[in-house]
Amino acid sequence: MKLYFAPGACSLADHIALREAGLAFDPVRVDLKAKKTEDGQDYAAINPKGYVPALAFDDGAVLTENVAILSWIADQASTLAPKGVLARYRLLEMLAYLSSEVHKAFAPFFNPAAGEADKAKASQTISRRLGYIADRLDQDYLFGPAFSVADAYLFVMEMWAKRNGLPLADALSRHVDRVSRRPAVREALEYEGLAPSDAAAEPDAPARPRPADQAHRAG
Question: Taking a C-beta distance cutoff of 8 angstroms, is the pair 172, 131 a contact?
Answer without folding.
Answer: no
